[in-house]
Structures are given as structure tokens and as C-alpha cells.
Design a protein that fits this description.
The chain is α/β, with parallel strands linked by helices. The chain has helices spanning 36-52, 67-76, 94-108, 128-136, 191-197, 248-263, and strands spanning 2-6, 9-11, 17-19, 24-26, 32-34, 55-61, 80-84, 113-117, 140-150, 154-162, 165-172, 175-179, 203-205. The longest helix has 17 residues, at 36-52.
Length: 265
């Protein structure tokens, strides 16, 4: 079984700075790491590999520094790592990103299962995985918390709480799933794999390699139908609480006064 894991390198969101003028995240302002949700996606692929046997390819799109995250993915159990890197890919929104990743997947060949995290912590859109599936015309399931079974032809998964219920979905392969953090606990790499990851070759794909699958105008800022006009960082809000120890009538009157005072602001 051939499994593809999509990962994204993201900055440490506790330390990253925002460029309000350009409306972008200043990614060079903080250390980068594999998106936490994608770590669960990688561990899901590794669990399948350990149980059934599989070949795992990890793919990301980003600048050359994203090699670091790919080496980390290899150290954790991936068999192959691929970096899609080209200055013409920069500035892509979710649509352009998904279209470009889909072209990269077509370039690499066929996969039985594609796994991604449910979202990235820097964008929080939860759109890219589903859009990739649409561009590749394959079934997909999001918010997967458990893989019940998988074989060469189909996969059965459990989807997290949807309006108070869980859903069991069975899909024909090839398919894509977006997993939640509840599906597993990512394991740390071994020392030997960590050392070996420093020596591996990271395969690189540029836009020129994708000429059969995508046009230049469909990538990067040019291929993005959505644009960020402005980023506004909200000021901290101080909140106060009130404790009511009197009877119910007094409590109701106090609430009415609070609502009336807020409505006049």
C-alpha cells in the first residue's frame, strides 16, 4: 500500500509576528515545526505501516528551509520525503495551494491513501485536504478520530462528534482522510532514524516539473482567488466577573441592569 502524508511547516504561533501592513504572517520571526495536526496524520500512516505494511511518502510545499521538517518526518518513520519549492508558489491561498499540491501528487504517481491533519495552526481553515481530494476527484472524510479497518480496496473510519453523533464511513480507495488530534499520540523518533535523516536526499519539485498538470497562472498569488486585505491584532480585553449570592429575584434584577447598561454603550 502506498500512503501519502501531506504536512505543512508552520511557525511557533506563540512567538510569531504579524506584518499588518502586508497582511501576512512573518514566518521568519519564529522557529518552524511540523504542523501539530499533521504529526497525527504521519503517526496514522506509521500505524498502518506497522500493522499492514505500507510505503509512506511525505509531501510539503514551502521554501527550502522546510527540508528540516521533512527530515523530521523521515526520522519519525516516513520512507520518502518530497519538497515542492518554487518562488512562484508563494502567496498561495487555500485554493492555489490545493491545486498545486494536487499537481504534485499527480507528478509523483498514484497513492492508495492520502492522510492530512484536519487543519493548520497558522491558517485554521481546514480546507486544503478536502480541496486536494476534490481536485483529484477522490472520496474523502474529515475529522477522522479512528480507522476501523483498511485493506487494498477500501477503508472504514469513524468521524468525530457531528451534531451530537458519530459517523462511520466506508470509502473505496484511493481516498483522502483528514485526522484529528484524538486519533493517536505521535511517537518520538529513534536516535538511529534521527541520525539517518541528516544524510537522506530530499526530492524537490519545481513549477517547471508540473507543466503537464498545472499552469503557472494557477499557482501562488496569481492563482489565488482570495486576498487578505488587512490583519488586525486585537487588543487584550480585560473581563470582570460578578458573584450573586442573593435570592433568585435579586439575581434577575441584577442581570436586567447589566443588559441595560451594555445596550447603552
Amino acid at each position: 500500500m502506498n500512503i501519502l502524508v501531506l504536512i505543512k511547516e508552520v511557525p511557533d504561533m506563540e512567538k510569531v509576528k504579524f506584518d499588518s501592513e502586508k497582511g501576512v504572517v512573518n514566518r521568519s520571526s519564529a522557529e518552524s515545526e511540523i504542523n501539530p495536526f499533521d504529526m497525527n496524520a504521519l503517526q496514522s500512516a506509521i500505524d498502518i505501516k506497522n500493522k499492514y505494511g505500507a510505503d509512506i511518502t511525505v509531501l510539503t510545499m514551502g521554501p527550502l528551509r522546510a527540508e528540516k521538517s521533512l527530515r523530521d518526518a523521515y526520522a519519525r518513520g516516513a520512507d520518502n520525503v518530497v519538497l515542492m519549492t518554487d518562488c512562484r508558489f508563494s502567496g498561495a491561498d487555500t485554493c492555489a495551494t490545493s491545486r498545486t499540491l494536487s499537481a504534485g501528487i499527480k507528478y509523483l504517481g498514484t497513492f492508495d491513501l492520502i492522510i492530512c491533519g484536519e487543519k493548520s495552526v497558522d491558517g485554521d481553515t481546514a480546507q486544503v485536504g478536502a480541496e486536494v481530494a476534490e481536485f483529484l476527484d477522490m472520496p474523502h472524510a474529515y475529522y477522522v478520530e479512528n480507522i476501523n479497518s483498511i485493506d487494498k480496496t477500501e477503508i472504514e473510519v469513524v468521524i468525530e462528534n457531528i451534531c451530537g453523533s458519530k459517523q462511520v464511513r466506508r470509502m473505496k480507495l484511493p481516498a483522502l482522510i483528514g485526522v484529528t488530534k484524538n486519533i493517536n499520540l505521535p511517537k518520538l523518533p529513534t536516535v538511529n532514524r534521527k541520525l539517518k535523516s541528516l544524510e537522506i536526499d530530499v526530492e524537490k519539485i519545481s513549477l517547471d516539473d508540473l507543466y503537464e498538470h498545472i499552469d503557472a497562472d494557477e499557482t501562488g498569488f496569481k492563482g489565488s482567488p482570495t486576498k487578505i486585505a488587512k490583519i488586525v491584532i486585537p487588543n487584550p480585553v480585560e473581563r470582570t466577573g460578578h458573584i450573586y449570592k442573593d435570592d433568585y429575584v435579586t439575581f434577575k434584577e441584577a442581570i436586567k441592569k447589566e443588559i441595560k447598561s451594555e445596550s447603552t454603550i
